[in-house]
Each structure stands twice: as C-alpha cells, then as structure tokens.
Amino acid sequence: MSTATWTGRGVPAQHPRGLPRLDRTLVMGIVNVTPDSFSDGGRWYDPRRAVAHGLALVDEGADILDVGGESTRPGAVRPPVEEELRRVLPVVRELAATGVAVSVDTMRAEVAARAIEAGAALVNDVSGGLADPAMLPLVAQAGTPYVAMHWRGHSDGMQARAGYGDVVTEVADALRLRVDAALHAGIPPDRLILDPGLGFAKDADHNWQLLARLREIVALGRPVLVGAARKSFLGRLLADPVTGRPRSAGLRDAATSAVSVLAAAQGAWCVRVHDVASTSDAVRVTARWGRHAPTEAAWTLTP
Q1: What's the distance, CA 153 to chain centroid?
Q2: Burial of 271 (0-12, 13-18, 19+ CB in 10 A)
Q3: Which residue has the higher pLDDT, 42 or 1?
C-alpha cells in the first residue's frame, strides 16, 4: 500500500502511485452533475456551477471530488451515454486542471476512459464492474485506482433484490468475488477500494447492520469507502415524531457526520459526503481520539 499523500490542490497532474493515504479517514466531496439527484435536486447541473461547487468543497476540506452524471437513487432511469459524457467531461476537465484529485462516478467504461483522459485520477463504479464488462480491463490498462461497490442491479429494480440471510456476510462474500475479478483483469491490488453499497439493494436495517459490523468489510484487506450521505435510512431514523414524515435530505448532514465518525473509528479509508466542512472536522476529531483510545474500543451501547 502506498503511503504517499494524495489530497486537495496539491495533487500532481499525473496519476498517483497506489492509493491516497493520510493519518485519518479521507473525505470525498460529492459533485452531482444530474438534474434528478435525490439530495440536491439538480442544483449543480450547470457545469460552471458544478466546478465552482467542487472548488468550494476543496476549500472546506475535501481530499477527493467525486463527479457523477448518472443518478443512482432508487427508481432512477439511466441517461444515454452521450448525455452522461456531456454532463461530466467539462466538470472533470476543469477541476482536474486546478490540481484537484477527481474521481469519476460511472458504471460505463466509455465514460471512465474519457474522464481519465480529461484528468480523473480514480474511477468509482457502483456496479463493481458488473454493469459493463469492459470496465475492469479499461481500469487495469489505465492504471487508476478503482472503487468496486456491492451491487445487485440497476436503480430501477435494485430494491426488489434486497433479500439477505446475513447481509454483512453476503456482502463480504460478493466483494471478495469482485476483488478476484479485478485482480484477474489486471488491476493492481494496491489500487483497489471496496464499498459495501449502503442503500443499494438494501433496506434500512441492512444498512445499519453493515455500519455496525463495518470492521468485517475492512477485514477483507482493501481500503473501504463508505457512502451514507443524506440517504433515506437516515431520513427515516430522524422522522418527525408527530407526522412520521422522514426528515428531508438537506437536513440529514449532522446524522451523516455521525455515521462518518463511526465509520472512521472502524477503519474506513474514505467517506463520501455532501457536507464536507462538518465531516472534515469529524474525521480529524476521530483520528485524534483514535490515537488515545484503547485498541478495542467498545461501541456497543446497552439499553
């Protein structure tokens, strides 16, 4: 595992060797270039606004910016590849040109290839290479770090596949298969990151089980990315006690920061969030706490 620092505007123009490492959990800021995001409703759909937003996130402490042109909320319809390219390429190009570490959030090898040419230094594939058989060979040839997420199908039908016996064991087993596939395709082991896929073909209880037992995913031996930002299981937890209405997406950032702390304390390599400023503070506090905490800190709360 490389220990080279890879963060903020200091990232060199060429791709880094290995994966970014710091003495704390990294923060990935989300830049949705979509008109139908559940969390920001297309607020950054215009490329100029998306670039300005990304740079603001870096100023708030983002180590990586994740640029995506396809909504993966439950029920979302996929855009044509030409439209996804139109959305992401100008944003990736302008952000990368400033020295920012840019990740492209895509399931399509063509989009990943074009984004890498535009300066993307990491590919974040929520399908783990299952949506496009050309993805893993493309990433292996490009030499970029790669995030493989646990996935059971596209957004329009994924929640119908949210059936598990032991969700943590089954997700870990599926991720091992993705590791094997990535290594077989030629992706170096030090450039492979795993994501348990909170909210993707999982209900709220599945998400909580994965978060409570995140160390079992970390134990697979690869850096782990956790993406809980503003997701619906947090909205339901924080529902209005009178009406039962889930808390709106824009008011879930404090809960997201709490999840980020718990993930960081269990060894997460990076957390993917909308609210970078509070999360950046939170992971720094967690890192400092971890230097003084017992080796096996007890997180279990007794009712």
Answers
A1: 17
A2: buried
A3: 42
List the catalytic residue out of 93, 230, 252, 272: 272
The pLDDT assigned to 34 comes to: 86
Compute the distance between CA of residue 96 and CA of residue 90 in angstroms, rounded to an integer: 10
Side by side, the strands of the sheet bearing 26-32 are 192-195, 146-149, 122-125, 102-105, 64-68, 26-32, 270-273, 225-226
**Predicted local confidence at residue 297, as pLDDT:** 52
The reported pLDDT for the residue numbered 19 is 57
**In the block, which residue shows the tokens 């994965």?**
210
pLDDT band at 205 (very low <50, low <70, confident <90, very high): very high
Task: Please report the sign of the dihedral spanned by the C-alpha atoms of residue 249, residue 253, residue 257, residue 260.
Answer: positive
231 is an active site residue: yes
**CB-based burial, 99-114: b 16+ in 10 Å, e otherwise:** ebbbbbbbbbbbbbbb
Residue indicated by tokens 């708030």: 60
Residues 6+ apart with CB under 8 A from 141: 186
| 202 given a catalytic annotation | no
Tokens 């978060």 found at? 211
Which of 93, 202, 231, 252 is catalytic? The answer is 231
Among 34-38, 133-137, 200-204, the minimum mean pLDDT is found in 34-38
